[in-house]
Amino acid sequence: MPIFEYMCQVCGAGFEQLIMGREASVSCPTCGSPEVAKQFSTFSAQTTGGFVGSMGSGCGCAPSG
């Protein structure tokens, strides 16, 4: 059950929503509008050494040398 980030197209509110299925409908908790756009987001994790970025960040294209 992933958590997605959305932005309301009517009032501009940003919010997160826990989605429990492919057909789940999402509406803005501020104004109730169903006109929302899914936002691109990455995750991070906190370790004893600090924060670690998403495992998928970066392309690994750095030149070696």
Written overview of the protein:
There is one protein chain. This protein has 65 residues and is mostly beta strands. Helix content is 0%, strand content 31%. The protein has strands spanning 3-8, 14-18, 36-38, 45-47, 50-52. The strands form two sheets. The protein has a three-stranded antiparallel β-sheet, with no helix packed on it. A two-stranded antiparallel ribbon has the order 4-5. The protein is globular and about 40 Å long.
How is the topology of this model organized?
Layout: E1 3-8, E2 14-18, E3 36-38, E4 45-47, E5 50-52
Antiparallel strand pairs: 1-2, 1-3, 4-5
**What general outline do the C-alpha atoms trace?**
globular
Q: Determine the N-to-C terminus distance.
A: 42 Å
* Average residue-wise pLDDT: 78
Helix content: under 10%
Spans of 5+ residues with little confidence (pLDDT < 50)? 55-60
Q: Sheet with the most strands?
A: 3 strands, antiparallel
Content-based structural category: mainly beta
- Rg over alpha carbons: 16 Å
Number of helices: 0
State which percent range the strand residues make up: 25-35%
Strands ordered across the widest β-sheet? 2-1-3
Number of strands: 5
Along the chain, the helix and strand elements come as EEEEE
Brief overview:
The protein contains no helices and five strands.
Q: Key features?
A:
single chain, 65 residues, three-stranded antiparallel sheet, 31% strand
